[in-house]
């Protein structure tokens, strides 16, 4: 009899189901904390990933035949439910509902903070999970469900929540959809809901280059935008949006528009702002362009603008390895650089910059640069500076000898 039981997997599983304890393969789950659903914007995705590393292989091997092993403790049961909602595993939820939760998913689950399962499913765009939880009578839904579904572009979830739930949404729904370029959702919310959006909706859409959303919000909505719209569009090189906002809106921009456009190499935007706007720029424009190696922008600003730059231009150009920029600034500007040009280039490993600065500029400190190269493991630069220092000492010694041989006879005469 005992041999018959021990040789039967089904009978052994039945026997083991009455025993306390947990199968070794599931032990890693016990160390995982429950990810909080209170702040979906900062959801603990690492915990979900860790639980998936254990549960997914388990499901692959056992399918749903060993659900009893996964629900030995309320801690595991909670993780299984959360994992199923997060990863769109409807079959797991249905099995749990049939075998453990009677007619209502949360009747027998003792977790008071499980109030946002529908929010989580909507956040992930899992329509069938949202539908299942709604039909099961689960009340874990807030305005965050539609807000996040709209933000992430899950239009079917947005429409389902609008038609079947009463929680609605907030202004974050349309604003989030606009910022990510989801025009169909923006239009749906505009036509079917009354919450509207924030002015930063157009700001974010403009900065991200979503022309169609900017045009729609301008023509259909009254919230408008702020100076951040043109600033953001300029910084990111969206010249068509810059032109549209200039021609159709009154908010304008600040010097940050041209500064940012220059720093990111968008010369066409710089020219547009120079020709059509009056805000201008500051020294940060040329400084930023030099730091990122946009020599053409540096040259244009030098020729057409009067703000100039500071020592920061050559310093950052050198530190970032842009020798062509450093040479041009040396030949055409008078601001020069600071000791940080040589020291930073040495620490960053730009030997060609170090060699050029040592030969053409006087601001740097060889000893400081050598120390920085040594601290940052720049052996090639360290060797070159060591050799250069030795050569300078040799030249100085020879120069003193020549001077002595010329001066001493005069003193003794």
Q: State the helical fraction.
A: 55-70%
First-last Cα distance = 126 Å
Order of helix and strand elements from N to C terminus: HHHHHHHHHHHHHHHHHHHHHHHHHHH
Shape: flat
Number of strands: 0
Mean pLDDT: 87
Put simply, the count of helices is: 27
Report the uncertain regions: 103-113
Q: Name the structural class.
A: mainly alpha
Beta-strand residue fraction: under 5%
Radius of gyration: 33 Å
* Oligomerization: single chain
Q: What can be said about the biggest beta sheet?
A: none
Protein name: Ankyrin repeat-containing domain
InterPro entries: Ankyrin_rpt, Ankyrin_rpt-contain_sf, SecEffector_AnkRepeat
Pfam families: Ank_4 (PF13637)
Task: Please give the structural blueprint.
Layout: H1 2-6, H2 9-16, H3 27-30, H4 45-62, H5 67-70, H6 74-86, H7 90-99, H8 117-124, H9 127-135, H10 143-151, H11 155-164, H12 171-179, H13 183-192, H14 200-208, H15 211-220, H16 227-235, H17 239-248, H18 255-263, H19 267-276, H20 283-291, H21 295-304, H22 311-319, H23 323-332, H24 339-348, H25 351-360, H26 366-375, H27 379-412
Notes on the structure:
This protein has 413 residues and is mainly alpha-helical. The chain has a domain at 24-141. Helix content is 67%, strand content 0%. It has helices at 2-6, 9-16, 27-30, 45-62, 67-70, 74-86, 90-99, 117-124, 127-135, 143-151, 155-164, 171-179, 183-192, 200-208, 211-220, 227-235, 239-248, 255-263, 267-276, 283-291, 295-304, 311-319, 323-332, 339-348, 351-360, 366-375, 379-412. Helix 6 runs antiparallel to helix 7. The longest helix has 34 residues, at 379-412. It is flat. The termini are far apart.
């Amino acid at each position: 009899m005992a041999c018959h039981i021990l040789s039967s997997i089904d009978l052994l599983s039945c026997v083991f189901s009455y025993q306390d304890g947990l199968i070794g393969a599931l032990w890693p789950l016990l160390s995982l904390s429950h990810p909080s659903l209170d702040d979906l914007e900062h959801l603990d995705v690492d915990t979900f990933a860790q639980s998936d590393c254990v549960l997914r292989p388990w499901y692959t091997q056992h399918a749903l035949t060993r659900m009893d092993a996964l629900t030995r403790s309320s801690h595991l049961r909670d993780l299984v439910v959360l994992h199923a909602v997060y990863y769109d595993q409807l079959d797991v939820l249905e099995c749990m509902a049939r075998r453990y939760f009677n007619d209502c998913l949360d009747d027998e689950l003792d977790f008071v903070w499980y109030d946002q399962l529908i929010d989580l499913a909507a956040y992930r765009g899992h329509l069938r999970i949202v539908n299942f939880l709604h039909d099961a009578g689960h009340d874990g839904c807030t305005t965050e469900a539609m807000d996040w579904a709209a933000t992430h572009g899950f239009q079917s979830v947005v429409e389902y929540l609008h038609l079947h739930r009463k929680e609605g949404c907030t202004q974050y729904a349309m604003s989030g959809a606009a910022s990510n370029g989801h025009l169909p959702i923006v239009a749906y919310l505009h036509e079917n809901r009354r919450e509207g959006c924030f002015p930063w909706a157009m700001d974010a859409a403009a900065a991200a280059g979503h022309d169609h959303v900017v045009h729609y919000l301008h023509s259909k909505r009254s919230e408008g935008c702020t100076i951040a719209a043109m600033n953001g569009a300029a910084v990111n090189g969206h010249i068509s949006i810059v032109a549209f906002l200039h021609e159709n809106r009154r908010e304008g921009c600040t010097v940050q528009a041209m500064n940012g456009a220059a720093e990111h190499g968008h010369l066409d935007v710089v020219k547009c702002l120079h020709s059509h706007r009056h805000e201008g720029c500051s020294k940060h424009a040329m400084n930023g362009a030099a730091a990122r190696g946009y020599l053409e922008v540096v040259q244009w600003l030098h020729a057409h603008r009067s703000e100039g730059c500071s020592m920061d231009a050559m310093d950052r150009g050198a530190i970032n390895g842009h020798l062509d920029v450093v040479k041009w600034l040396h030949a055409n500007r008078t601001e020069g650089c600071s000791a940080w040009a040589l020291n930073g280039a040495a620490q960053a490993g730009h030997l060609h910059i170090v060699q050029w600065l040592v030969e053409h500029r006087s601001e740097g400190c060889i000893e400081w640069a050598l120390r920085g190269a040594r601290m940052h493991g720049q052996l090639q630069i360290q060797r070159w500076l060591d050799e250069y220092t030795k050569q300078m000492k040799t030249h100085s010694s020879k120069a003193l000898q020549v001077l002595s041989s010329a001066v001493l006879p005069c003193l003794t005469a």
